[in-house]
Amino acid sequence: MRRPTSLGAKLVLTMTVVALCGTVAITVLLASIITPSFTTLQDVVIARQVERTHTMLSRYAAQAQAEARAYRDSAELSGAQHAPASLATPAKRSLSADGFAKIGADGRVVRAKWNEPAGSSLQEQWAALLGRTDFAHAVGGRRSTRFYARLGNGVAAIGVARTEVWGDADTVQSYVVIARVITATQISRALGADATIDLGSDHAGATTSRGARAIIIVPMIGADGRAVATTRFDLPGDVSRLGRRMLAFAVAGSILLLLFVLIVLRRLISQLVLRPLLRIENHMRRVRASGSLALLEEDERRDEIGSLGRNFNAMLRQLRDLREQIGVQSFDLGRAESAVAVMHNVRNALNPISTILSREIAQAPPIDRATLDRAIDELARGDVSDERRQKLATFVAAAIDTEAANRESTRNELSIGREAMGHVLEIIGQQQQAAHERPALEICDVTTIIARNATIVRYLDGASIAFGFPAGPSLVMANRLILSQVIGNLFANAAESIVARGTGSGSIVAATEQAEGRVTIEIRDDGEGITPEVAATLFHRGFSTRARKSGGLGLHWCANSVNAMQGSLRLESEGPGQGAVAVLTLLAPDSGGADAD
Known about the structure:
five-stranded mixed sheet
């Protein structure tokens, strides 16, 4: 991230944004799934708790109703509705009820009993409850009913049963009332939750208020159908709390998982992508700084990065080959330009000679030779007058003077031509001296030069050639360009010898050996070989064993070039069909031959 424009920073930033978006999406998804699910579970728990509360309260009221029916059945079977003993037996059997009463058809309390000492507050409130309740209306057309009623500071489950006893005259109706006090402790014990009875609430239906704890309110319905009290208890929100915890754990786990994935991806991207790219970039910087087209060390990867490295090395090889070709062409071009310059200088030096010769050839004689001969003949005769003789003598003297002047002019022109010819010879001599100067030597890796020039074997038509050369570097003192040309020419000759043998395949093996300050390079092939007679003329100028071959450097040039680098070149063969070996000997870097530079 210290380099915002780098690929690693962009990848980290992109993955971070994706992770944040993924975290938000996962949070929303989990919240939309987990929260409603656990809310539904909490609602189910609350509904079941409400149902259990209704069931428990109904069970208390049903017990009171059942006892009231038992009293009624006993009274009807006894048939003595007015006898005091008619209630004695049931009363003795109702010791489990908190209150008992018999109400006449006119609403008058026939008998009332409360299982507490007489004069207690509950007994008085029981009597007051019996007096204000319309049991006939509460029972209606049924034979029994149950409801709840306030009894002092508490609530009682009331069971009412209508009795019908047939006497002598008609049927007498009355009501048996049984009361059971319900306490908050009983409800709490039955529900397994802390419950309270609220006498001041008049909720007609079960209600629930949510919060950290669910508050459930269940009404107790009285004889008039309205709530006389409510059962209230708190239900711990364990399910909702569990859902929130699960949501928090799920979100935290997702964040940690995404963070772990980001760290792993960051390391993987750094290990698999960024570091190889940085290695290639550093190698490119070294190549640019040094100018040496050294190959990148390949790591045998088969993915895109490995393909990039291989293509990069292929590009470096191609650039190195092109550089070699440009060097060769520059060498040839320089040699051609040097020859052109020499010929230009020679032409400039020969121009005066050409001009002098042309002028001398085109120049007419100053005196006609026949005329001069006639004048001399006349002077030799004795019959010529003195005046005529004087004129002829003057003419001959003038002709002689003119010829002498012409001869002197020609001598001067020839001197100038001789100086121009000397200049031409000096130019040619300087060029010959420069051609025989030794080239500058430097430390070269002959193994690299051999491997680069081996491409001529790879693309050779007409034969499949296996090639072998040393694995490690081998340093020599030579001119890199000239040595590359010599080795390339030797490889070309070896490959042509293999093709000429006609087997369709062959091998070329190069080996190096250092001893006594010199490095010996052997290039061995299994081609057609040579005879001793041919071996004696191999290094003659213009000699070639290929009748149809034209061009090329030739072994004569190769031998002279190697000699100029203080080395030697020879070609050996055991005979036709036995192959040949070219032995090239050069100075080793530590042999003291660097003074040739």
